[in-house]
Design brief:
Number of helices: 16
Number of strands: 12
Bound molecules: beta-D-fucopyranose
Order of helices and strands: HEHHHEHHEHHEHHEEHHHEEHEHEEEH
Radius of gyration: 21 Å
Structural class: alpha/beta
Strand content: 5-15%
Shape: globular
Distance between the termini: 34 Å
Length: about 450
Amino acid sequence: MKLTDAFIMPNPRDTSGFPPGFVWGAATSAQQIEGAANTDGRGASIWDAFCAEPGRIKDASNVDVACDHYHRSAEDVALMHWLGVNAYRFSISWPRVQPRGRGAWNAAGFAFYDRLIDQLLLAGITPHATLYHWDLPLALHREIGGWLSRDSTNHFADYAAEVARRFGDRLASISTLNEPWCVATLGYETAQFAPGHASRAGAAQVSHHLLLAHGQAMRAMRAHTRTNLGIVLNHTPPYPAEPTEDDRRAARLNDGLTTRWYMDPIFLGQYPADVLEHLGADAPRVETGDLTTIRQPLDFLGINFYTRKLVSTRVPPVAAPGDLGFTDMGWEIYPQALMQHLLRVTREYTPPPIYITENGMANADELAADGRVHDAGRIDYLRLHLQAVAHAIAHGADVRGYFYWSLLDNFEWDSGYAKRFGLFHTDYATQVRTAKDSAHWYREFIAAHARQHRGG
Ligand code: FCB
């Protein structure tokens, strides 16, 4: 039997693998959808500046307008209502609510999120906010060195406390950081992302400051809210390409650098020894008490999963087989890794309830002559990954919710607008949103789950 046959749900409408009360959502982030970059007192972010540097963004685009969500939030909430999701994960733009990253708050910025939260609650959709989805206030970067500076952790904790104080009672959850690995490694080591810094030691120090900022923010928020607090990590489980000692060792190190570097301090209160050894003189400076601060009790763990990483030490490396194909990002479709990873995390870390806070695929979607978007590949992707989650739940992983990335096509960082991840197609010239076939499929799946638990 081919893997594909083994791994496809016998009946796509069979939602029995998901318990009652399961959270069905979609996710976005401020920098990728809001636009309104210079509106109502918003400060600049490091991504505004990064887009202005020639050669940084593949299609030379910027985030001035994006999906114009700032002006269209009511319409976008209506899309979600139609979709039937009961949860929405969005991020708060730090420079919109605190233009310089310290000092004065921007009332108009907070008013936008205040309205958005009310619109969601009226539509029966629970709001899940993320505090940092990569849009660092530019002033904080220019004036103190951003995340390279230890002081950034105090500013982040102040911002977190303010959000918790204002909105905590209406938010279903608050995540401190989205994907600190991407922030540190892609932003400060490989320079693929803003702010485009390239230093391994710098990136390691940034990763420590991010974890510290997370811990300080958790503490600061607890004083203001009883809502659920946690963090969102990206996990791309590595697999040795061949059963050789070299590939195994390389895969283990990759796991250390990407997964254990964040999971171990958060859950075990220590950095992994093998990674510290690997970093040598580039390892971060850690002060007494830092690891206690980082190891705060979490109410949930958010995991973003897209693909696996095939690790090969051959030259040239062994390519991923891609039995189920590759997405438009070139990422191998490998849902088994999601199931296996959820069980591994459960076994090794005894985590709090888990939410899949992102999962989805880029697809070369086009509006067809019939006015629809026939993204059959995305339906398969969605179905396979939901099945992986259901299998993990059946084997003991405590997964409480699933957020598809993304609600709508948006600014995909250094890829600009060329990569489409949405359930809704965005026409950037007109800002018209069109439900893709996958949106119809997800809508029916969520409705079927609700019917099943009403006994209908
Ligand atoms: C994740 C990011 C998200 C989106 C997806 C495709 O790493 O959190 O903003 O870009 O990848």
